[in-house]
Write a structure and sequence with these properties.
Helices cover about 50% and strands about 10% of the residues. With about 170 residues, it is α/β, with parallel strands linked by helices. The chain has a single domain, classed as Rossmann fold (3-Layer(aba) Sandwich), CATH 3.40.50.1010.
């Protein structure tokens, strides 16, 4: 079964910009349903990013997402090393700060790609980030995904692939 691994910005941008919790009940009910059905999951690093804020999004996640929604990334350390090597080999392109941030223990991006890479044929990263190969000050999720043949898409494409509406 194919599963979509959601990045922090899936939840954060939905909450703050596109689908506010107090208005877009259909969206959030659909997210809850897909999480319960295990069609969407995320990782512990995303949980830490979300739960670092005392806000309505954190409260919604605690109240609505299943206990097994956020997966442990300690099981994908060998795949993480592949991502880290990819990034290190691009040190002539990316600024040092971009590399440091991308590979930081507390940042989810490299780990979410590693989690997808661990079961590449059945996992797709969902992010609102857009490919920008010229960008030097930040490693965006699509760049290593493209380089390492890891599937990725945005929120709307994920819903289309799942055949879901709300």
């Amino acid at each position: 079964m194919s599963v979509f691994i959601i990045d922090s910005n899936f939840l954060i941008e939905a909450h703050r910009k596109t689908y506010p919790l107090d208005i877009a009940h259909g969206f959030w009910n659909k997210v809850k349903q897909l999480a319960i059905e295990e069609k969407i999951i995320s990782i512990d690093k995303v949980k830490n990013e979300i739960y670092g804020n005392e806000d309505d999004l954190k409260n919604w996640c605690i109240a609505n997402l299943p206990n097994n929604f956020f997966k442990d990334t300690s099981v994908v350390l060998s795949q993480y090393s592949i991502i880290a090597n990819w990034a290190a080999n691009r040190s002539s392109h990316y600024m040092p700060k971009a590399l440091t941030e991308f590979l930081s223990y507390g940042v989810a991006d490299a780990y979410i790609i590693a989690f997808a890479l661990a079961d590449n044929t059945n996992r797709t990263v969902v992010t609102q980030e857009v490919s920008d190969p010229r960008c030097r000050n930040r490693i965006k999720i699509p760049e290593p995904c493209i380089a390492l043949s890891v599937g990725y898409c945005n929120t709307i494409e994920m819903f289309r692939r799942l055949g879901e509406t709300f």
